[in-house]
Protein backbone atom coordinates (compact mmCIF):
# COMPACT_ATOMS: atom_id res chain seq x y z
CA UNK A 1 0.00 0.00 0.00
CA UNK A 2 1.41 3.41 -0.97
CA UNK A 3 1.64 5.67 2.05
CA UNK A 4 0.50 8.80 0.23
CA UNK A 5 -1.65 9.99 -2.66
CA UNK A 6 -2.15 13.43 -4.13
CA UNK A 7 -3.78 15.91 -1.81
CA UNK A 8 -5.54 19.19 -2.50
CA UNK A 9 -6.88 20.28 0.86
CA UNK A 10 -9.03 21.77 2.10
CA UNK A 11 -11.77 20.43 -0.16
CA UNK A 12 -15.39 21.63 -0.30
CA UNK A 13 -16.76 18.97 2.06
CA UNK A 14 -14.11 19.77 4.69
CA UNK A 15 -14.87 23.48 4.44
CA UNK A 16 -18.58 22.90 4.89
CA UNK A 17 -18.03 20.69 7.96
CA UNK A 18 -15.56 23.15 9.49
CA UNK A 19 -18.16 25.91 9.22
CA UNK A 20 -20.70 23.75 11.05
CA UNK A 21 -18.03 22.84 13.63
CA UNK A 22 -17.31 26.52 14.28
CA UNK A 23 -21.02 27.20 14.79
CA UNK A 24 -21.76 24.57 17.41
CA UNK A 25 -18.64 23.11 19.02
CA UNK A 26 -16.86 24.80 21.94
CA UNK A 27 -14.22 27.22 20.70
CA UNK A 28 -11.81 26.03 23.38
CA UNK A 29 -10.70 23.25 21.06
CA UNK A 30 -7.81 23.96 18.71
CA UNK A 31 -8.13 23.22 14.99
CA UNK A 32 -4.47 23.14 14.03
CA UNK A 33 -5.18 23.15 10.28
CA UNK A 34 -8.36 22.44 8.29
CA UNK A 35 -8.23 18.65 8.44
CA UNK A 36 -11.57 16.84 8.69
CA UNK A 37 -10.86 13.16 9.22
CA UNK A 38 -13.20 10.58 7.76
CA UNK A 39 -11.28 7.35 8.25
CA UNK A 40 -7.80 6.10 8.99
CA UNK A 41 -5.74 2.94 8.76
CA UNK A 42 -2.16 2.09 9.60
CA UNK A 43 0.02 5.12 8.82
CA UNK A 44 -2.66 6.98 6.86
CA UNK A 45 -5.58 9.32 7.44
CA UNK A 46 -8.22 10.11 4.80
CA UNK A 47 -10.22 13.32 4.93
CA UNK A 48 -13.84 13.82 3.89
CA UNK A 49 -12.77 14.93 0.38
CA UNK A 50 -10.82 11.74 -0.25
CA UNK A 51 -7.35 13.20 0.39
CA UNK A 52 -4.91 10.77 1.91
CA UNK A 53 -2.29 11.88 4.39
CA UNK A 54 0.82 10.33 5.83
CA UNK A 55 0.31 10.69 9.55
CA UNK A 56 3.08 11.73 11.94
CA UNK A 57 0.73 12.52 14.85
CA UNK A 58 -0.86 9.18 15.82
CA UNK A 59 -3.75 11.22 17.22
CA UNK A 60 -1.27 12.68 19.76
CA UNK A 61 0.43 9.43 20.72
CA UNK A 62 -2.78 7.38 20.88
CA UNK A 63 -2.59 5.18 17.78
CA UNK A 64 0.79 3.66 18.62
CA UNK A 65 -0.04 0.45 16.74
CA UNK A 66 -1.33 2.33 13.73
CA UNK A 67 -4.86 3.55 13.09
CA UNK A 68 -7.59 0.90 13.36
CA UNK A 69 -5.32 -2.06 13.90
CA UNK A 70 -7.38 -5.10 12.76
CA UNK A 71 -6.60 -7.15 15.89
CA UNK A 72 -7.76 -4.33 18.16
CA UNK A 73 -10.91 -3.77 16.09
CA UNK A 74 -11.59 -7.51 16.25
CA UNK A 75 -11.20 -7.57 20.06
CA UNK A 76 -13.74 -4.75 20.44
CA UNK A 77 -16.19 -6.27 17.94
CA UNK A 78 -16.03 -9.57 19.84
CA UNK A 79 -16.45 -8.01 23.28
CA UNK A 80 -19.12 -5.37 22.61
CA UNK A 81 -22.16 -7.61 22.00
CA UNK A 82 -21.27 -9.72 25.06
CA UNK A 83 -20.84 -6.90 27.54
CA UNK A 84 -20.24 -3.31 26.45
CA UNK A 85 -20.45 -1.71 29.90
CA UNK A 86 -19.26 -3.98 32.67
CA UNK A 87 -20.48 -1.75 35.53
CA UNK A 88 -17.02 -2.34 37.02
CA UNK A 89 -17.66 0.48 39.49
CA UNK A 90 -20.03 -1.74 41.47
CA UNK A 91 -19.52 -5.30 40.23
CA UNK A 92 -16.60 -7.42 39.20
CA UNK A 93 -16.18 -8.73 35.65
CA UNK A 94 -13.33 -10.66 34.15
CA UNK A 95 -12.19 -8.50 31.23
CA UNK A 96 -10.97 -5.50 33.28
CA UNK A 97 -9.47 -7.89 35.79
CA UNK A 98 -7.62 -9.70 32.99
CA UNK A 99 -6.32 -6.41 31.62
CA UNK A 100 -5.07 -5.38 35.08
CA UNK A 101 -3.32 -8.73 35.52
CA UNK A 102 -1.69 -8.53 32.10
CA UNK A 103 -0.67 -4.93 32.68
CA UNK A 104 0.98 -5.41 36.07
CA UNK A 105 2.83 -8.47 34.76
CA UNK A 106 4.64 -6.04 32.42
CA UNK A 107 5.40 -3.35 34.99
CA UNK A 108 8.10 -3.19 37.67
CA UNK A 109 7.24 -5.61 40.47
CA UNK A 110 6.09 -3.03 43.01
CA UNK A 111 3.49 -1.58 40.63
CA UNK A 112 0.87 -4.19 41.27
CA UNK A 113 -2.46 -2.45 41.92
CA UNK A 114 -4.56 -0.75 39.25
CA UNK A 115 -7.14 2.04 39.49
CA UNK A 116 -9.25 2.50 36.33
CA UNK A 117 -10.42 5.73 34.69
CA UNK A 118 -11.02 7.06 31.18
CA UNK A 119 -8.45 9.72 30.31
CA UNK A 120 -4.99 11.01 31.06
CA UNK A 121 -6.21 13.83 33.28
CA UNK A 122 -8.27 11.41 35.36
CA UNK A 123 -5.22 9.22 35.95
CA UNK A 124 -3.49 12.27 37.43
CA UNK A 125 -6.52 13.17 39.54
CA UNK A 126 -6.41 9.67 40.99
CA UNK A 127 -2.65 9.95 41.60
CA UNK A 128 -3.07 13.25 43.46
CA UNK A 129 -5.93 11.96 45.60
CA UNK A 130 -4.09 8.74 46.35
CA UNK A 131 -0.90 10.60 47.28
CA UNK A 132 -2.76 12.90 49.67
CA UNK A 133 -4.79 10.07 51.12
CA UNK A 134 -1.67 8.02 51.76
CA UNK A 135 0.70 10.72 53.03
CA UNK A 136 -1.86 13.07 54.64
CA UNK A 137 0.24 15.91 53.16
CA UNK A 138 -1.31 18.77 51.19
CA UNK A 139 1.32 20.01 48.67
CA UNK A 140 2.62 18.81 45.31
CA UNK A 141 5.68 19.66 43.29
CA UNK A 142 5.66 19.70 39.48
CA UNK A 143 7.67 21.33 36.67
CA UNK A 144 7.53 24.27 34.29
CA UNK A 145 6.70 23.01 30.83
CA UNK A 146 4.81 20.06 32.30
CA UNK A 147 1.41 19.13 30.90
CA UNK A 148 -0.83 16.78 32.83
CA UNK A 149 -4.36 17.54 31.62
CA UNK A 150 -7.23 19.99 31.97
CA UNK A 151 -9.21 18.95 35.05
CA UNK A 152 -8.56 20.94 38.23
CA UNK A 153 -5.90 18.78 39.80
CA UNK A 154 -4.18 17.97 36.53
CA UNK A 155 -4.40 21.63 35.45
CA UNK A 156 -2.87 22.72 38.75
CA UNK A 157 0.14 20.54 37.93
CA UNK A 158 0.29 21.86 34.38
CA UNK A 159 2.55 24.83 33.63
CA UNK A 160 3.07 24.54 29.88
CA UNK A 161 1.12 27.49 28.41
CA UNK A 162 -0.58 30.26 30.34
CA UNK A 163 -3.75 30.06 28.19
CA UNK A 164 -4.35 26.66 29.79
CA UNK A 165 -4.53 28.35 33.25
CA UNK A 166 -5.70 31.92 32.60
CA UNK A 167 -8.82 32.83 34.67
CA UNK A 168 -9.17 29.22 35.87
CA UNK A 169 -7.49 29.70 39.26
CA UNK A 170 -7.23 29.31 42.16
CA UNK A 171 -5.49 25.99 41.84
CA UNK A 172 -4.42 23.15 44.09
CA UNK A 173 -1.25 23.92 46.06
CA UNK A 174 1.36 22.94 43.48
CA UNK A 175 4.86 24.42 43.48
CA UNK A 176 6.63 24.45 40.13
CA UNK A 177 10.35 23.97 39.62
CA UNK A 178 12.32 24.44 36.39
CA UNK A 179 12.65 21.37 34.17
CA UNK A 180 16.15 20.38 33.07
CA UNK A 181 16.07 21.25 29.38
CA UNK A 182 19.52 20.62 27.89
CA UNK A 183 18.87 23.11 25.04
CA UNK A 184 17.97 25.91 27.48
CA UNK A 185 19.77 24.60 30.55
CA UNK A 186 18.91 25.79 34.04
CA UNK A 187 22.24 26.95 35.44
CA UNK A 188 23.71 27.32 31.95
CA UNK A 189 25.35 23.92 31.48
CA UNK A 190 23.49 21.05 29.77
CA UNK A 191 25.76 18.50 31.47
CA UNK A 192 24.74 19.56 34.99
CA UNK A 193 21.25 21.06 34.55
CA UNK A 194 19.52 18.09 36.24
CA UNK A 195 21.75 18.42 39.33
CA UNK A 196 21.13 22.20 39.30
CA UNK A 197 17.36 21.69 39.27
CA UNK A 198 17.42 19.18 42.11
CA UNK A 199 19.63 21.41 44.26
CA UNK A 200 17.26 24.32 43.51
CA UNK A 201 14.39 22.22 44.87
CA UNK A 202 16.46 21.26 47.92
CA UNK A 203 18.09 24.60 48.65
CA UNK A 204 15.42 27.07 47.56
CA UNK A 205 11.97 25.50 47.40
CA UNK A 206 12.34 23.21 50.43
CA UNK A 207 14.05 25.91 52.50
CA UNK A 208 12.01 28.97 51.57
CA UNK A 209 8.64 27.91 50.21
CA UNK A 210 7.41 24.58 51.53
CA UNK A 211 8.66 22.02 53.99
CA UNK A 212 9.34 18.68 52.27
CA UNK A 213 7.32 17.14 55.12
CA UNK A 214 4.25 18.78 53.66
CA UNK A 215 4.83 17.55 50.10
CA UNK A 216 2.73 14.52 49.17
CA UNK A 217 4.22 13.89 45.72
CA UNK A 218 6.55 15.08 43.01
CA UNK A 219 4.83 14.68 39.64
CA UNK A 220 6.97 14.49 36.52
CA UNK A 221 6.86 13.51 32.86
CA UNK A 222 9.87 11.34 31.98
CA UNK A 223 10.07 13.30 28.71
CA UNK A 224 8.01 16.46 28.48
CA UNK A 225 5.36 16.15 25.78
CA UNK A 226 3.24 19.26 25.26
CA UNK A 227 6.09 21.28 26.78
CA UNK A 228 8.26 20.61 23.71
CA UNK A 229 9.47 17.00 23.61
CA UNK A 230 12.20 17.79 26.09
CA UNK A 231 14.44 14.90 27.11
CA UNK A 232 16.06 15.58 30.48
CA UNK A 233 19.54 14.23 31.26
CA UNK A 234 19.56 10.57 32.33
CA UNK A 235 20.50 11.57 35.87
CA UNK A 236 17.25 13.50 36.42
CA UNK A 237 14.71 10.81 37.34
CA UNK A 238 17.16 8.89 39.59
CA UNK A 239 17.96 12.17 41.39
CA UNK A 240 14.25 12.83 41.91
CA UNK A 241 13.84 9.28 43.18
CA UNK A 242 16.59 9.93 45.74
CA UNK A 243 15.06 13.23 46.80
CA UNK A 244 11.65 11.60 47.26
CA UNK A 245 13.09 8.72 49.29
CA UNK A 246 14.93 11.18 51.53
CA UNK A 247 11.70 12.95 52.49
CA UNK A 248 9.13 10.13 52.11
CA UNK A 249 7.57 11.97 49.19
CA UNK A 250 5.84 9.85 46.53
CA UNK A 251 7.24 9.93 43.01
CA UNK A 252 4.45 10.07 40.42
CA UNK A 253 5.59 9.50 36.85
CA UNK A 254 3.15 10.67 34.18
CA UNK A 255 3.68 8.25 31.29
CA UNK A 256 0.44 9.25 29.57
CA UNK A 257 2.28 10.42 26.43
CA UNK A 258 5.72 8.84 26.78
CA UNK A 259 4.49 5.38 27.83
CA UNK A 260 3.26 2.39 25.79
CA UNK A 261 6.54 1.98 23.86
CA UNK A 262 6.53 5.53 22.44
CA UNK A 263 10.21 5.71 23.43
CA UNK A 264 11.03 2.05 22.73
CA UNK A 265 10.25 0.76 26.24
CA UNK A 266 6.85 0.18 27.79
CA UNK A 267 7.59 2.94 30.32
CA UNK A 268 9.94 5.77 29.39
CA UNK A 269 11.17 5.77 33.01
CA UNK A 270 12.64 2.29 32.35
CA UNK A 271 15.44 3.95 30.34
CA UNK A 272 16.92 5.23 33.61
CA UNK A 273 15.78 2.30 35.78
CA UNK A 274 13.62 4.59 37.86
CA UNK A 275 10.76 2.92 39.69
CA UNK A 276 7.92 5.29 40.52
CA UNK A 277 5.53 4.93 43.45
CA UNK A 278 2.64 5.78 41.17
CA UNK A 279 2.52 5.61 37.39
CA UNK A 280 -0.14 7.12 35.11
CA UNK A 281 -0.91 5.62 31.68
CA UNK A 282 -3.63 6.40 29.16
CA UNK A 283 -3.57 7.55 25.49
CA UNK A 284 -2.21 4.48 23.61
CA UNK A 285 -3.39 1.94 26.15
CA UNK A 286 -6.57 0.83 24.35
CA UNK A 287 -5.88 1.50 20.66
CA UNK A 288 -8.15 4.58 20.46
CA UNK A 289 -10.75 3.77 23.13
CA UNK A 290 -10.79 5.86 26.32
CA UNK A 291 -8.92 4.12 29.10
CA UNK A 292 -6.66 5.38 31.87
CA UNK A 293 -4.88 3.60 34.68
CA UNK A 294 -3.17 4.81 37.83
CA UNK A 295 -0.93 2.03 39.07
CA UNK A 296 0.70 1.85 42.47
CA UNK A 297 1.96 -0.54 45.10
CA UNK A 298 0.16 -2.29 47.95
CA UNK A 299 1.76 -0.03 50.56
CA UNK A 300 0.43 3.14 48.89
CA UNK A 301 -2.88 2.05 47.38
CA UNK A 302 -4.73 1.46 50.62
CA UNK A 303 -7.72 3.79 50.13
CA UNK A 304 -10.96 2.28 51.41
CA UNK A 305 -13.96 1.16 49.30
CA UNK A 306 -16.00 4.15 48.15
CA UNK A 307 -13.13 6.65 48.40
CA UNK A 308 -12.55 6.91 44.63
CA UNK A 309 -14.23 5.46 41.52
CA UNK A 310 -15.59 6.25 38.05
CA UNK A 311 -18.71 5.04 36.22
CA UNK A 312 -16.91 4.07 33.02
CA UNK A 313 -13.53 3.14 34.55
CA UNK A 314 -12.62 -0.38 33.45
CA UNK A 315 -15.05 -0.33 30.53
CA UNK A 316 -15.23 -3.82 29.04
CA UNK A 317 -14.75 -2.83 25.40
CA UNK A 318 -11.80 -0.57 26.28
CA UNK A 319 -10.22 -3.32 28.40
CA UNK A 320 -10.69 -5.91 25.64
CA UNK A 321 -8.94 -3.50 23.27
CA UNK A 322 -6.31 -2.95 25.97
CA UNK A 323 -5.55 -6.68 26.20
CA UNK A 324 -4.99 -6.78 22.43
CA UNK A 325 -2.78 -3.68 22.63
CA UNK A 326 -0.60 -5.15 25.39
CA UNK A 327 -0.10 -8.31 23.39
CA UNK A 328 0.86 -6.44 20.20
CA UNK A 329 3.16 -3.97 21.96
CA UNK A 330 5.04 -6.81 23.60
CA UNK A 331 5.62 -8.83 20.45
CA UNK A 332 9.35 -9.66 20.18
CA UNK A 333 11.35 -6.87 18.58
CA UNK A 334 8.67 -4.19 18.79
CA UNK A 335 10.65 -1.93 21.15
CA UNK A 336 13.81 -2.42 19.07
CA UNK A 337 11.90 -1.40 15.95
CA UNK A 338 10.77 1.82 17.66
CA UNK A 339 14.33 2.64 18.75
CA UNK A 340 15.72 1.86 15.31
CA UNK A 341 13.11 4.00 13.54
CA UNK A 342 13.70 6.83 16.02
CA UNK A 343 17.45 6.73 15.30
CA UNK A 344 16.79 6.69 11.57
CA UNK A 345 14.38 9.63 11.79
CA UNK A 346 16.81 11.71 13.85
CA UNK A 347 19.66 10.85 11.46
CA UNK A 348 17.56 12.12 8.54
CA UNK A 349 16.61 15.23 10.51
CA UNK A 350 20.27 15.94 11.22
CA UNK A 351 20.94 15.87 7.49
CA UNK A 352 18.09 18.34 7.02
CA UNK A 353 19.51 20.53 9.78
CA UNK A 354 22.72 21.02 7.78
CA UNK A 355 20.73 22.70 5.00
CA UNK A 356 18.17 24.59 7.06
CA UNK A 357 19.33 26.97 9.80
CA UNK A 358 15.83 27.16 11.30
CA UNK A 359 16.32 23.71 12.85
CA UNK A 360 18.04 24.57 16.11
CA UNK A 361 17.77 21.33 18.03
CA UNK A 362 16.88 17.71 17.29
CA UNK A 363 16.05 15.50 20.23
CA UNK A 364 14.06 12.54 21.36
CA UNK A 365 13.94 8.93 22.41
CA UNK A 366 12.39 6.35 20.14
CA UNK A 367 9.54 7.88 18.19
CA UNK A 368 9.04 10.73 20.65
CA UNK A 369 11.18 13.05 18.58
CA UNK A 370 11.07 16.82 18.16
CA UNK A 371 12.82 19.63 16.33
CA UNK A 372 13.05 23.07 17.89
CA UNK A 373 12.76 25.89 15.36
CA UNK A 374 14.81 28.99 16.07
CA UNK A 375 15.22 32.46 14.61
CA UNK A 376 18.97 32.00 14.81
CA UNK A 377 21.12 29.26 16.27
CA UNK A 378 23.07 31.63 18.53
CA UNK A 379 20.15 33.31 20.25
CA UNK A 380 17.83 30.27 20.09
CA UNK A 381 14.75 32.53 19.98
CA UNK A 382 11.61 30.58 19.09
CA UNK A 383 10.50 30.70 15.43
CA UNK A 384 6.77 30.58 16.13
CA UNK A 385 5.35 32.12 12.96
CA UNK A 386 7.60 29.99 10.82
CA UNK A 387 6.36 26.87 12.59
CA UNK A 388 2.77 27.77 11.77
CA UNK A 389 3.69 28.13 8.11
CA UNK A 390 5.56 24.83 8.06
CA UNK A 391 2.74 22.89 9.71
CA UNK A 392 0.14 24.32 7.32
CA UNK A 393 2.36 23.66 4.30
CA UNK A 394 3.06 20.10 5.41
CA UNK A 395 -0.66 19.50 5.72
CA UNK A 396 -1.22 20.87 2.22
CA UNK A 397 1.49 18.54 0.96
CA UNK A 398 -0.12 15.52 2.65
CA UNK A 399 1.87 15.20 5.88
CA UNK A 400 0.20 15.66 9.27
CA UNK A 401 2.44 17.00 12.03
CA UNK A 402 1.74 18.66 15.38
CA UNK A 403 3.37 21.45 17.36
CA UNK A 404 4.63 21.26 20.94
CA UNK A 405 6.15 23.87 23.24
CA UNK A 406 6.83 27.33 21.85
CA UNK A 407 8.42 26.43 18.55
CA UNK A 408 8.83 22.68 18.41
CA UNK A 409 7.48 20.32 15.76
CA UNK A 410 6.84 16.90 17.17
CA UNK A 411 7.29 13.69 15.26
CA UNK A 412 4.95 11.30 16.95
CA UNK A 413 4.00 8.78 14.25
CA UNK A 414 2.37 5.40 14.77
CA UNK A 415 5.13 3.10 15.98
CA UNK A 416 4.64 0.78 13.00
CA UNK A 417 6.40 3.43 10.90
CA UNK A 418 8.91 2.13 8.35
CA UNK A 419 11.94 3.71 6.71
CA UNK A 420 9.99 4.56 3.54
CA UNK A 421 7.53 6.62 5.62
CA UNK A 422 10.40 8.51 7.22
CA UNK A 423 11.92 9.15 3.79
CA UNK A 424 8.66 10.55 2.41
CA UNK A 425 8.02 12.71 5.48
CA UNK A 426 11.56 14.12 5.41
CA UNK A 427 11.44 14.88 1.69
CA UNK A 428 8.15 16.78 2.14
CA UNK A 429 9.67 18.77 4.97
CA UNK A 430 12.85 19.42 3.01
CA UNK A 431 10.85 20.79 0.07
CA UNK A 432 8.87 23.10 2.34
CA UNK A 433 11.91 24.46 4.18
CA UNK A 434 13.69 24.96 0.86
CA UNK A 435 10.68 26.68 -0.71
CA UNK A 436 10.18 29.06 2.22
CA UNK A 437 13.86 29.87 2.51
CA UNK A 438 14.07 28.51 6.09
C1 LIG B 1 1.81 13.74 29.74
C2 LIG B 1 0.33 13.95 29.68
N1 LIG B 1 -0.40 13.79 30.79
C3 LIG B 1 -1.74 13.94 30.79
C4 LIG B 1 -2.40 14.30 29.64
C5 LIG B 1 -3.89 14.49 29.66
O1 LIG B 1 -4.53 13.49 28.96
P1 LIG B 1 -6.06 13.64 28.51
O2 LIG B 1 -6.12 14.66 27.44
O3 LIG B 1 -6.44 12.26 28.07
O4 LIG B 1 -6.82 14.05 29.73
C6 LIG B 1 -1.69 14.47 28.46
C7 LIG B 1 -2.36 14.86 27.21
O5 LIG B 1 -1.78 15.24 26.24
C8 LIG B 1 -0.28 14.30 28.47
O6 LIG B 1 0.46 14.47 27.37
Properties at a glance:
36% helix; single chain; 438 residues; alpha/beta; 4-stranded mixed beta sheet; 7-stranded mixed beta sheet; Aspartate Aminotransferase, domain 1; 15 strands; Aspartate Aminotransferase, domain 2; globular; binds pyridoxal-5'-phosphate
Map the helices and strands.
Layout: H1 12-24, E1 37-41, E2 44-47, E3 52-55, H2 58-61, H3 70-79, H4 94-104, E4 113-117, H5 120-135, E5 139-143, H6 152-157, E6 174-177, H7 193-209, E7 215-220, H8 236-247, E8 250-254, E9 278-281, E10 292-296, H9 316-329, H10 334-355, E11 359-365, E12 368-373, H11 384-396, E13 399-400, E14 402-404, E15 408-411, H12 419-436
Parallel strand pairs: 3-13, 5-6, 5-7, 7-8, 8-9
Antiparallel strand pairs: 1-2, 2-3, 4-10, 9-10, 11-12, 12-15, 14-15
Amino acid sequence: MEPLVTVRPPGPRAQEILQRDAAVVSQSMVREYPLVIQRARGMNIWDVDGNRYLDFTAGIAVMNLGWNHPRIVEAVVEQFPLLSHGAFLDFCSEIPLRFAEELVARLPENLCRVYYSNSGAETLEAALKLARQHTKRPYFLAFYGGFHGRTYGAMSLTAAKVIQRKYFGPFLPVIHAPFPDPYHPFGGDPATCAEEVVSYIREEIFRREVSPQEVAAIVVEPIQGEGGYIVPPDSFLPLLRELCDEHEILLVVDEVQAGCFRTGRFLASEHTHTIPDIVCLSKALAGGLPLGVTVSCDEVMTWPPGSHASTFGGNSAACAAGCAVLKLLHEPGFGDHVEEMGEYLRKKLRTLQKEHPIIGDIRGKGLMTGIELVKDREGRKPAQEERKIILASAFEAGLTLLPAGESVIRFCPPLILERRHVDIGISILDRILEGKGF
